[in-house]
Amino acid sequence: MKRLTDTFGFVGRWILGIFVGLGRIGIFFLSTLRGIAYPPSKTGLVIKQIYFIGHKSMFVIIFTGAFSGMVLGLQGYYALSKFGSEGFLGSGVILSLVRELGPVFTALMVVGRACSAMCAEIGIMRIDEQIDALRCMAIDPHGYLVLPRLMAALIAFPLLTHVFDVVGVWGGYAVGVKLLGVNPGAYWDGVYRSLEWQDIWMGIVKSLVFAVLTITISTYKGYYAGVDRGSRGAEDVSEATTSAVVTSSVTVLVADYIITSIML
Amino acid sequence: MTEPDRELIRVRGLNSFYGRKQVLRDLSFSVEANRIFVIMGMSGCGKSTLLKHLVGLKPSPPGSIYIEGKDISGWNHAQWNNYWLRIGILFQNGALFNSMTVAQNIALPLMVHTNLPKEIIEIMVEMKLHMVGLSGTGALMPSQLSGGMRKRAGLARALSMDPEILFVDEPSSGLDPITAAGLDELLLSLKETFGMTLVVVTHELESAFRIGDQMVVMDQGRIIAYGTPEEIRQMNDPRVQQFLSRRPDEEHRDYDSYISRLCKVKRR
Amino acid sequence: MCSVEINRAGDDGDRLDMSLRGKLVRGEVKAVMERMLREIHSSSNLKHVTVNISSLEWIDTAGVALLVLFCQRIRAMGGTFRLVKPNEKVLKVFKLAQVEGFLSIEDGNDRA
Question: How close does chain A come to B150, measured CA to CA in Å?
Answer without folding.
Answer: 12
